[in-house]
Design brief:
- The protein is an alpha/beta fold.
- Helix content is about 40%, strand content about 20%.
- The strands form two sheets. Strands 4-3-2-5-6-9-7 form a seven-stranded mixed beta sheet.
- The chain starts with a helix and ends in a 6-residue tail after the last helix.
């Protein structure tokens, strides 16, 4: 398993956990499922049994070949020996437009943030995402306004999806065993998800303010605008970045864009 160690991959081998992930994915034959990190194909095989199409991405050529030969009987699996972060996912998904798109994956922990940003910036509202992630990372994604774990990704992810923690997964469920525990997130589209342009504007804005997340909003605003303009718009400038709601971030981005006070 030297290739796994090299790429910081940990293979999920606990059958019970695999079955729970499938249960929360609520798959049927009208679903096209994207899996990021094929690994040894343990989850891939389960996805193929219940989903209509499975598009699975594995960057490591050795793992790719091993799994390709291990699962030849599943005609509904499409293997991609590609770096998911560099793929033109819209082009790959285009032939499957009649399907409902879902993401179900044991995400490589070292690139979790980059993967979620890519998922968010593609103009597709995924019907469901079921993600096995490092516990600490998952807690950040779920962090609510006012919680210290809240980060820019917490804000923009929750703008489009309602995030639920389904269950924790012990490190003993993987081979090789990681040094951390994990958890499974189930994410469903929110009632009023914003478009990608809005997501990108808020993403840029939160990155700017979270650089000094312990300072009040007014402190960073003074560099670009009179804070009272924002305060009068109903956004409390005495709050810290982690305290603002998704709606307040969206409103702040709109105001600053309209006044052309910041490039978003």
């Amino acid at each position: 398993m030297q290739e796994a160690l090299k790429l910081s991959q940990n293979f999920l081998v606990n059958t019970g956990v695999l079955e729970k992930i499938i249960e929360f994915s609520d798959l049927n034959r009208s679903d096209c499922v994207v899996e990021i990190g094929t690994g040894m194909g343990n989850l891939t095989e389960h996805l193929a049994q219940y989903g209509g199409k499975v598009l699975t991405f594995e960057i490591d050529p050795i793992l790719y070949q091993k799994t390709l030969h291990r699962l030849p009987s599943h005609s509904n699996i499409h293997f991609f020996n590609q770096n998911f972060l560099k793929t033109d996912l819209l082009q790959i998904l285009a032939p499957f437009s009649k399907y409902s798109f879902k993401v179900v994956a044991n995400i490589p922990y070292s690139i979790s943030s980059a993967i979620l940003y890519k998922i968010l910036q593609i103009p597709i509202l995924w019907a469901r995402l079921v993600l096995l992630v490092q516990k600490e990372f998952g807690q950040k994604i779920m962090a609510q306004p006012g919680e210290k774990k809240r980060v820019p990704l917490s804000v923009i992810f929750q703008m489009r999806y309602r995030v639920q923690q389904r269950f924790e997964v012990s490190r003993g469920s993987f081979r090789p065993m990681p040094r951390v525990d994990s958890l499974v997130l189930k994410c469903l589209p929110g009632p009023y998800p914003p478009d990608i342009a809005t997501i990108n504007r808020v993403a840029n804005l939160t990155q700017y303010f979270f650089q000094q997340k312990r300072k009040r909003i007014s402190s960073r605003l003074r560099r670009i605008i009179d804070p009272e303009v924002i305060n009068n718009a109903g956004i409390p400038i005495t709050k810290r970045p982690e305290d603002l709601t998704e709606l307040e971030w969206t409103k702040l981005a709109e105001i600053l864009t309209q006044l052309k006070k910041i490039e978003l």
